[in-house]
Amino acid sequence: MKIHHASSIRPYFFNYLRMKTNCLLFGICLILVSCNRGNKNIEEYFKNMPNHHPAVDLVDIEGAIFGMPLEIAMSDTLLVAMDDIGNKYFTLIDIKNNRLVNRFGDKGKGPDEFMYPCNISINRFDNILEFTTLTPKAHIGFSLNDAAKNPPLTSSKKRVFSFKDDSPSYITWFPALNCYIANGMFLAGKYAIINEYDTITKVFGDLPPSKYREEIDNFLLCDAYQGFIKSRPDGKKVAQVSLRCDLIDVINADGTIIRFQTYNPEIAVIDGMVATSRESPYGFSSMATTDNYIYTLYSGRTFNEHAMSAQLCEKIYVFNWDLQPVCSYTLSTEAISIAVNSDDSKLYFMGMGDIQMGLYKIELSH
To answer: Does residue 185 contact residue 165 with C-beta atoms inside 8 Å?
Structure first.
């Protein structure tokens, strides 16, 4: 098995590597939609569903320059792109008027600075951009109203975490349970519940069955299934997708977990880190959630065939919150990140044009 990269035991570094190489207390019951669909891959799972080929429109934002925006998030009037340009992490765009509003989010280790943000989302009830950072290990929120000011004001809230053994990575707020939920690196389980006192009260959920369960301890094996975790806007459910395979979990407020998956990543442990095979297909490069649907941007490409463009995607698969297939979209421009407005009428994505990265949109028709 040829290995093309090794990720840190903290998946923030995996996100950072992508950026650089591409430019509870409640009972848990696991209900598997399918952990093994035989030879039925995600494309075959959707073969009887509508496949749309929408017109792709470039959104011209005067003055905006993008590098490799690995994540975007939006409200109905604002869009935030997470990028690695200059000394700021975020670009704020008024999508109603196609206008660059501001750059904000200072890089560094000083007061009101941070490093390696990921898992961004916008709380539409109070217009707060929320994300997780590696340095410090924190969940941070920016008021987008404050971010629009010149100069932008500092972060409106910050929760800094410190854990002894387990290592939560992608963290989001779960309103239905009034707590944080995270995936990460755990001695046992796949997810953690974190209470208002920043204490892990529950680690739960099984990793998928695989040949690695007997060979690799749970803490390291968790790294093979890391990826974005986001609440449904109404706060009643949470979805998580994997960067390295096509695993999707939906965690309900009653503690049940529904799972979709057709394959496991091909991995090995090298020098204490999980490494992925060159022949192993990438999973989901991005995810967006609305009250009705889960939108997933799927690669399915291998490093052997596509090298540094393996995480660019042409396919969007849309699931309902029971993980039943709804439809798919085939893009004419390769995408790296997606966001959807609240009424499921428009999808925006960062895509690679003929010359440079740009912001595009499509009209949704399902």
So the answer is: no
